Amino acid sequence: MRLTLNKIFLAFSVISALIGLGFLAWILVTLFIKGFSSLHLSLFLNDLVDGGLRNLIVGQLVLALLAALIGIPLGMVAGIYIREYGRGKYPELIRDLSDIMVSAPSIVIGAFVYSFAVAPFGGANGFAGVIALSIMMIPIIINTTDSMLSLVPKELREAGMALGASKYRVILDVVIKAAKVGIMTGILLAFARIAGETAPLLFTSETSNYFSLDLTDSFPSLTVSIYNLANEPEKSSRDLAWAASFILTVMVLVINLFGRYLTRNKK
Amino acid sequence: MEKLFQKISFSSATLVLILLLGIFTTLFISAKPAIAEFGLEFITDKRWNQEVSLPQTKTPAQVATPAQNLEDDDAIADEDDMILDEDDEDDSMTKTVFGGLVPIVGTLLSTLIALVFAMPIAMGIAVFLAEIASKNISKYVGIAIELLAAIPSIIFGMWGLYYFAPIISDTFGGYQVSLLTAGLVLGVMILPFMAAVTRDSMNTTPDVLKESAYALGATKFEVVKDVIFPFSKVGIIGSIILALGRALGETMAVAFLIGAVYSLPETITDPTISIPVAMAVNFGEASGLGESSLFYLGLILFILSFAVISFAKFYFLKRTKV
Amino acid sequence: MPVMNIKKFSFTYAGAEIPSLHNISLPIQKNKITALIGPSGCGKSTLLRSMNRIHDLYPGNKYDGKIELLDLETEKFKNILEIKKENEFIELRQKVGMIFQKPTPFPMSIFDNVAYGLKIAGIKNKTELADRVEASLKGSALWKEVHDRLGKSAMGLSGGQQQRLCIARAVAVKPEVLLFDEPTSALDPISTGAIEELIVELKKDVSIAIVTHNMQQASRISDFTAFMYLGDLIEYDKTENIFLNPKEKKTEDYITGRFG
Question: What CATH number does residue C86 fall under?
Fold first, then answer.
C-alpha cells in the first residue's frame, strides 16, 4: 500500500515534469514550423510597409537598448545603495518595494507612462516606450545587484578600505568586480525579459510600419506589431506574425541562455 | 566624490519609492472622474459603455452589449422607449455608464483557473527537480523549465489561440476564446515560475533531515509529505500566492484568448474580459469618462496585485536575514 | 556474537576514481557498542552510512564486498549490499536506525516525531501508538521533561533534548542496530553526558555502532573499537586493548595524540 502510493506519487511527479517539458517543446516546435516556413531573407531587408520586419526588429532592439541604458545604471546604483550604504529601515523598505515592483502588472506601468509621457504630448512616442521599459527593468536590476553584492565576502571590502581607498572606490573597483559575472547574468536576463514585452508598449510607443529612429513619434515595435498582425484576418499577416514571433523568441532565448552560460562557466 | 556617489545612489534607490507613489497617484488622478461619477458601485456594476436614460431609471434592464442588442428584443423596446440603439439620442436624456464588474470577475476567474491548473503540475515538477531527478537531469530540466518562463507572453497568446485553444474547445466544448482557454494558457505561463520558486523553497530542507526520515524507513512520498512540505510550507504557499499576483496582471497571453467581450460568463467556456485586456483593447479608442474608467480599472488591478504580492512577501517569503 | 559482519568492503563515491574505503572487514557485536574512531576524513562516517545504505539516496556510488546483517527470525545472515527493491530498503532502515550529528527533529509535534516511524510502519491503533511513544520517551530519559507538552512543536526543545528525541524516534521502531554519527558533536558537555548514559543504557535492547572523534567518549562507552585511517581499517579490538595496549604503531600514535 505504502509502496503503491509512493509509486503513484513518483509517477505523478515525473509526468508533471514531462508535461512541463511538453509545453516547452510544443511551443518551440510550433514556432519553428510556423515561423521558419515564413522566414525569408527579404523579411530582414524590408520594412513592415513592404511586408518585411526590418524596421520592427531594429525598433524593438533600440527601445530595449535605450531602456537598458537608463535602467542598468540606475538599478545598479540603487542596488549598491541598498546593500552598501543604506542604514536602518529605509533600504529594507526600498528592497521590499522593488521586489513588489518586479511583479507589478506591466500594463499598469504602460498606463502610468501614458498619462505623463503620451497624453500631454498629443500622441505615442518612442521616448514613452523607452521610459516604460526602463521602469520595468530598474527593479529587476536592483534585485540582482543587491543579491549578487551580498555574496561578496566582507573581508574583501575591509581589505580594500585597509589600503586607504575610499568606500565608493572600493565598491566600484573591488566589490562590483567580484560580483561582475552574477550581475552580468542578471542584466542579460532582465534585458531578455523587457525585450519581449508587449503590454507596456501598447499605448506608449505603439508601433509603426515605417523605419524610424525618431523617438518623438510612434516607434516601430516587433511585439506590438505581432499583436496587430495576429489579429488581422489575412493569412499573409498571420504568417508574418509567426515569422516575427520566431525571431523574437530566438532573440530572447539566446540572450537568456547566454546569460546563464556566463555564470555556469564561472562555477 | 564619495559624498556625491552616496547622494546619487540614495536618489536612485528613492526613485523606486517615487515611481510607486507616482504610479498610484497618476492612476488615481486619471481615474478620478470615473470615481466621482460611479463611486464604489463601479465594482459591482456589470454595464460597460452603455447608454441609459436618465429620468426613468428603474432597475437597469438586462445588459445589452452593442453586439447583443442589434436585433433587439421586445422587452427592452417596451420598457425603455427612450433608448434608441445607438446615437441620435437626445443628450440630456441619456448618459453613458461604465462598470467594472465584468473585467474584475474575468480577472479573478481566469487567475483562479490558472492556479487550479498550474498548482498540482508545478508541485510535481518541483518535487521532480528537488527530489527525484539526478543532479544532471535536474539541472537540464530546470533550465528547460526556466526557459519556458522566459518565452514572451505574446508568444503564449498566439500559440494558445491557434494551437492550444482548439484542442481545449474540442474537448470541453464551447468557444475557442473563453474563460477556460484563457485561464489554462495563463496556467501554462505561471507554471514554470511557480515550479522554480517551489523547488527553491524545497531545496532549503536540510539533507540530514530528509536522511533521518529515510533512516526510519520512510518512502520518498512520505519524506516529501511529512518532512519537506511541512518544512518548506511557508515558502511554497508564498510562491503560489506570488504566482497568483503575477497572473492577475498578465495581459498579452490573456488578450488573445479571453474574447474581450463585456459580458459575465455563464459557463466556464464563455468568452469574457479581464482588467488588463480591457485596458489593452480599449485604451486606444477611449476618451473622457471611458478612459477614466479604464484608469479606474487599472487602479483596482494595481491595488489588488500590490496587496497580493506584498501579502506573499511579508507573510510567507520573509527574507532570511542575509 | 556478531549482528553485522562487514567483509572485504570497499566503497567508491559517485564520480570518484579512488575508493574511499578499502577492503574493510569488521564485526558489529550483538548488544555491544562498537566505536569507530580516527582522524577526520578517515572514512568512519562513510562506513557507518554504508551500514543502512543511506548513501543510496544519492545515486552512482559503488560498493564492493559484503555487509551482512543477521536476520533475527531465521538466524541467518543476509548481504545488505544486494538490496535493490524499495521495500527491502525500507525494511533495512527499519532494522538499522540512524542518529545524525545534528539533531533532526521533524517539523511536527513531539508526539508525532516519535510516532512517525511507527505510523509509517503501519501502526494505527491510538493506544498502542501512545504506549510506544511513552515507552520510547521514557527509554530516552525524556519523558519527565516533555510529558506535559507532547503536542507542542519539537523545534522548541533544547539541542540536547532534540537529540534525545531523535534517539527516542529511532528506538520506537525497535531496530536491531542503531548507528550513531557523532551524536554529541553539536552538544554541550552536560547534554553529551546524558546522551552517553543513554547510549550505554540502550545496548540492552539494541546493538550499536558509533562514530566519534572524541577518544574519551569511545573509551568511556564502547566495548569494541575500530581505528581507521585514510580509508583503511588499521586495528579492531576490545576497547581496553586498543587504548591500553594497541598493536599497531599508527593506533598508538593516534590515541596518544601525536596526530589527528
Answer: 3.40.50.300
